[in-house]
Specification:
- By secondary structure, the protein is α/β, with parallel strands linked by helices.
- It folds into 2 domains: 2-133, Rossmann fold (3-Layer(aba) Sandwich), CATH 3.40.50.2300; 140-195, Winged helix-like DNA-binding domain superfamily/Winged helix DNA-binding domain (Arc Repressor Mutant, subunit A), CATH 1.10.10.10.
- Helices cover 56% and strands 9% of the residues.
- The chain has a 6-stranded parallel sheet, sandwiched between helices.
Length: 200
């Protein structure tokens, strides 16, 4: 099954798949509801899905499929390549993550890999994951505070914004400086912006 809300992409994927003697597209869906209907009726060996289908997110659809059929093989095909998109798709249970810029041979390889129970991450996405893994890992609270520091907020202002004590903010700032391996707030902001951890 191919599920994508962009007709050109959906038809293109279907065309690539149909050229292979060992592959058949049993259905095409333009939104999450159609995908669910086809999936429940046909139970395809592999479901190639866009991460953000119309009417319902692709992640929610993946979770629904796996709730009913825990052996479902889901291959995400999308041009959304932010860390959050990739992690959410994989955490939802997808077996593979294919970027829509991938060549036809890569698409076919991904489908075959997922069909055989293996995982597949396209080189484009794998490169991004490696880049993110090199970045310092900050907690959600530390990221919030670092973003507020980047926005020019002082400790007492951050404390008021987050409804915590100034002492708590100072504790987190110390942890942030330690994790980023810098000596002061200015260096922390510059490092965070350069690494893409926060926006400016």
């Amino acid at each position: 099954m191919v599920a994508c809300d962009y007709p050109m992409v959906r038809l293109g994927l279907a065309s690539i798949i149909e050229r292979e003697s060992d592959m058949t597209v049993i259905g095409q869906a333009s939104n999450a509801w159609e995908a669910k209907e086809i999936f429940c009726q046909q139970q395809p060996d592999v479901s190639v899905m866009n991460l953000r289908l119309l009417k319902l997110s692709g992640v929610a659809t993946i979770q629904t499929f796996l709730t009913k059929f825990d052996s479902a093989n889901i291959l995400i095909s999308t041009n959304y390549d932010s860390k959050e998109d990739i992690y959410s798709g994989i955490e939802a249970g997808a077996k593979g993550y294919l970027h829509e810029d991938s060549e036809p041979e890569a698409i076919k390889s991904a489908i075959r890999a997922v069909a055989s129970g293996k995982s597949y991450i396209s080189p484009i996405v794998a490169t991004k994951l490696k880049e993110w893994m090199k970045k310092p890992r900050l907690s959600t609270r530390e990221l919030e505070i670092l973003q507020l520091i980047t926005n020019g907020k002082r400790n007492h202002e951050i404390a008021t914004t987050l409804y915590v004590t100034e002492g708590t903010v100072k504790f987190h700032v110390t942890k942030i400086l330690d994790k980023l391996e810098v000596n002061d707030r200015t260096q922390a902001v510059l490092t965070a912006i350069k690494s893409g951890i926060v926006s400016f």
